[in-house]
Amino acid sequence: MEKNLSIDDNFKFCATIIIPFASNKNALYVKKCLDVDDELQATKVIKVLNVSGNDLKIDFFSTELRVLRVCVSSFYDMIIVLVRTLLEFNDNNP
């Protein structure tokens, strides 16, 4: 699912997170799980997810630093749940 990106000068703040997984399959699985959720403040934050090899790369762009912090913090909470789920139901490491 491709999203139309419109990142203009209002999105002054950014953060990039790269999470390595044991396999490309696991990285794609996590990306697909995260892609279904739209941002609650879509006018203030844009999240772009990409998989490269075994790495999940997430780029955040925001109009406000506080919104960026909240978004990244919430994202880490979701990643923790997904990794724990992979550990529980997957024979391999996440």
Quick structural overview:
The chain is of the alpha+beta class and 94 residues long. The chain has helices spanning 24-35, 65-89; strands at 13-20, 45-52, 55-62.
Tell me what you see in this structure.
This protein is an alpha+beta fold and 94 residues long. It has a single domain (13-89), classed as TATA-Binding Protein. It is built from two helices and three strands; from the N terminus they run βαββα. The longest helix has 25 residues, at 65-89. The protein starts with 12 loop residues before the first strand and ends in a 5-residue tail after the last helix. The relative contact order is 0.22. The model has no long low-confidence stretch (mean pLDDT 86).
**N-to-C CA distance:** 23 Å
SSE topology string: EHEEH
Q: In which range does the helix fraction lie?
A: 25-40%
The profile of the biggest β sheet is: 3 strands, antiparallel
Mean model confidence by pLDDT: 86
Q: What is the CATH topology?
A: TATA-Binding Protein
Strand order of the largest sheet: 1-3-2
CATH class: Alpha Beta
CATH superfamily: Alpha-D-phosphohexomutase, C-terminal domain
- Care to count the β-strands? 3
Using only CA atoms, what is the Rg?
Answer: 14 Å
Shape: elongated
What is the structural class? alpha+beta
Q: How many domains would you count in the coordinates?
A: 1
CATH-level-2 architecture? 2-Layer Sandwich
Query: Low-confidence segments, ≥5 residues, pLDDT <50?
Result: none
User: How much strand content do the residues show?
Assistant: 25-35%
Count of helical stretches: 2
